[in-house]
Amino acid sequence: MSGVHIAPPELQPASFEFTPENMALAKTHIAKYPEGRQQSAVMPLLDIAQRQHNNWLPQAAIRYIADLLGMPAIRVLEVASFYTMYNLAPVGTHFVQVCTTTPCWLRGSDKVLSACKKHLGVGPGETTPDGKFTVIEVECLGACVNAPMLQLGDDFYEDLDEESTGKILEALKRGETPKPGPQNGRLSSEPLGGATTLTTFNPAGAAGGNDD
Length: 212
Ligand code: FES
Prior knowledge:
Shape: globular
Structural class: alpha/beta
Distance between the termini: 46 Å
Order of helices and strands: HHHHEHHEEEEHE
Bound molecules: FE2/S2 (inorganic) cluster
């Protein structure tokens, strides 16, 4: 995984503030916590700020959220630099997060990364020259049952191989939005050939609670 990359001073805006809509949204998160515990809202507020600011967090947003929550800016920066979901420098329009933790690695995440290199010309931590794609490696995203997988925006693309990854990337290049979820034809995390249990479920005759 690449280290934390903070945008250089020339890319940092002098100030940041929430839009009125986002301030209202931020307040709903802050209100979830008891008096004196408002700092617990730091993660959703960082997420709101990042979505407002083209998918990355300038230092002005870090300071703004720190002031809003009454906490030191360094504490907000600690959170923002720990989680890969927060970007501290500009990223491509398509932010490709490839999981390479053990289950995904065992199931072929190397092939997913090599498809990124082949179709985009960039590897982990790099952005395409046109600014459209950034690829990073991330730790487990909690979809191991559909490994290997990657995240694009808010969507998971699962059960990948080199070919299906390439198809997704080429569709994005054409301006299309490929369908998220498993890419090998299975439904959710069901067996590839369809359900193998509860296939004859009959409520009227299910007194025993099991049809097998
Ligand atoms: S290891 Fe990749 S989603 Fe869990």
